[in-house]
Structures are given as structure tokens and as C-alpha cells.
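Session log. Operator J.P. requested a structure for one protein chain; no other inputs attached. Running the standard single-chain path with C-alpha cell output.
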Amino acid sequence: MVDESGERRPHGELVAEVLAVLWAAAGPLTPQEVNAAIDRDLARTTVSTILARLYEKGTVVRVRSGRGFAYAAADDAAGLAAGRMRRELEREPQRDVVLKRFVSSLSEDDEDVLRRLLLEAGGEE
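Structure written below.
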């Protein structure tokens, strides 16, 4: 995709903008409403295509709206990130190695938060 200056946008930038609009919305939005909220000069089909692909991935849900659909985010930003992390972990046969590398790359504060969350989760059994 090319922006107004003629330069290529970073991969995923428009998808991130679409999701930000959906997260901020009070309810489902049509592609036209999303396009208007993004406030870019995009082709009508561009946002529709992005929303259709996000629907196929399960990132958004859709409901009938007239002859078309209106879309809403299936999860918040944190849930989306957690889902991506879980899917990546599930693809890796050496999960322990991935987890070890992940934990070793955390800041001290993030390690403390992770420890606390694991203790809380362990106490719920």
C-alpha cells in the first residue's frame, strides 16, 4: 500500500488503524464507517478487503447490516496479542526453548509481573 506521499506504508499499519477504529467504536461498524473514521483517501474496497480478511482469521466478528455487514473486534488489543503468542507457541515443537528465550528477554519488571501472574493462576486450582 502507498500513502499520500507516495511511499509504501509499513506492513500492517492500515490493519492496525482499522483495529484501532473498531476497538474505539461503541458497536459494529460498516466498512464505510471504518473508512470514514480512518480519514484517508482509500478505495471503497480496500477497507472491505481488510475487514473480510480479519473476519476469516477470527480477529473480527460480523453481523448483517442491510445488504452488507458491520464489523466489531473479536477481542481487545491485549487479547489479540495473547492469541498471537499462543498460536506461535503451539507451532513450535520445542516449547520449553521458546518459553526460556522469551522469559530471558523480559525486563526485570516484566519478570516480576509474570511470576505474580503464575502464582495467582497456580492458586486457582
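Operator note: The beta strands are 60-65, 68-73.
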